[in-house]
Design goal:
About 40% of the residues lie in helices and about 15% in strands. It is an alpha/beta fold. The protein has three domains: about 1-120 and about 165-175, 3-Layer(aba) Sandwich (Rossmann fold); about 120-160; about 175-250, Arc Repressor Mutant, subunit A (Orthogonal Bundle). The protein has a five-stranded parallel sheet with strand order 3-2-1-4-5, sandwiched between helices. A two-stranded antiparallel ribbon has the order 6-7. It is elongated, with a radius of gyration of 28 Å. It comes from Verminephrobacter eiseniae (strain EF01-2).
Length: about 250
């Protein structure tokens, strides 16, 4: 099953045309448009062109990085609700990078896409042929007729627009381990394996602490049965070994 794509746009930081959003996040299912009071009119164009796929999120109060925190909160909300989704943050602000890298380290697929309005080019109008009026005044009628098609052909060439460019910044996810790359493994367990791997020397050595971390990784709604299955999975895959109250990592 193909993962859904959710795009979160920082409209204070970048103002991409709604029509270009598909280029920045191809095949997106939902677009969250974060805007301040000065972008309210622009935000409505997304609702008009995208329809129900667009959700407008006005910031409740202005202030330094207020919109950034709103977007970060919603990214966590979407990731928790759709753990297998692909998340795209549209912004040029590199301040989002630590949050994105942390989300990637926990097994989520998140990246940032930049947009540079300066790369957007407008086709220039072709200049009229300066030689044509002189030819009409001096040359014969037959010569003037021959000059006209040449001018039209030249104008047509000048109207060809240049190819648009998009500034793109990509966050590359860490290389997956063999255990977490098993397609038959549920997404929640793959994230658990990645999370413990990233903790390194900080991994809990006591069984009580280990179970508390594992329960947190599975989510607050995880049942005792799910916790037991996760422990069994980690032991069968030789990822952890539990001896009494001692936990070791293979």
């Amino acid at each position: 099953m193909t993962s859904l794509v959710h795009v979160l746009v920082d409209l204070e930081n970048v103002q991409p045309p709604a029509a270009l959003l598909e280029n920045l996040a191809p095949g997106f299912a939902n677009a969250w448009i974060f805007h301040g009071p000065h972008q309210e009119k622009l935000s409505k164009t997304f609702k008009t062109l995208i329809g129900e796929r667009a959700t407008l999120v006005p910031i409740t109060r202005t202030g330094n990085n207020a919109l950034d925190f709103h977007l970060s909160f919603y990214l966590g909300y979407v990731a928790a609700k759709h753990p297998d989704a692909r998340l795209v943050v549209v912004a040029n602000d590199k301040g989002y990078e630590p949050m994105i890298e942390h989300a990637v380290s926990l097994g989520f697929e998140v990246r940032r896409e930049g947009y540079n309005a300066a790369d957007k080019t407008t086709p220039k109008k072709a200049a009229p042929d300066k030689g044509t009026p002189a030819k009409k005044a001096v040359a014969k009628k037959k010569a003037a007729k021959k000059a006209t098609p040449v001018a039209k052909k030249s104008a047509t060439k000048k109207k060809v627009p240049t190819k648009k460019k998009l500034a793109v910044a990509i966050v590359v996810a860490p290389k997956k381990s063999n255990a977490s790359n098993d397609l038959d493994t549920p997404a929640a367990l793959r994230r658990v394996v990645k999370a413990f791997s990233k903790m390194g020397a900080e991994r809990p050595q006591k069984k009580t602490s280990f179970l508390r971390h594992l329960s947190s990784m599975l989510g607050k709604d995880a049942s005792q049965e799910a916790l037991t299955e996760a422990v069994s999975y980690l032991q069968k895959r030789s990822i952890v070994a539990i001896d009494g109250d001692k936990v070791t990592y293979v």
